[in-house]
């Protein structure tokens, strides 16, 4: 049998952003892992503390709401769910999704966990 790959720790921040009865979600690029799935705006915390500019400029993160743990293949993920401010402009992959549409979308596992903790009614603001 093949030797198991060593697990990789991944530290994420997820933005919980609501406005006008909708929750801000982003659609993952089809060419990426888990392509096409919808997720909360997500950024990986790097050792340098730098984040993607599109996220940094658009959403300001505030108070922590929850901590989530998740595992995918050899990745051990810890994510902080943080309240975020609505962006002035949406990135092309972002959309406001009403609570009534959440069950119709293919959501990432982390997003499903966040919704389970906060409840779909939290998407209304």
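^ Assign residues to that structure.
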């Amino acid at each position: 049998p093949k030797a198991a790959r060593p697990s990789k720790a991944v530290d994420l921040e997820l933005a919980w952003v609501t406005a006008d009865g909708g929750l801000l979600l982003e659609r993952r690029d089809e060419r990426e892992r888990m392509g096409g799935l919808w997720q909360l705006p997500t950024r990986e915390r790097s050792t340098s503390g730098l984040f993607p500019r599109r996220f940094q400029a658009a959403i300001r993160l505030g108070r922590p709401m929850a901590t989530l743990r998740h595992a995918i293949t050899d990745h051990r993920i810890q994510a902080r769910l943080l309240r975020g401010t609505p962006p002035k402009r949406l990135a092309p992959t972002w959309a406001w999704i009403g609570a009534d549409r959440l069950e119709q979308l293919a959501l990432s596992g982390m997003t499903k966990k966040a919704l389970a903790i906060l409840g779909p009614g939290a998407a209304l603001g």
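The mean pLDDT is 81.
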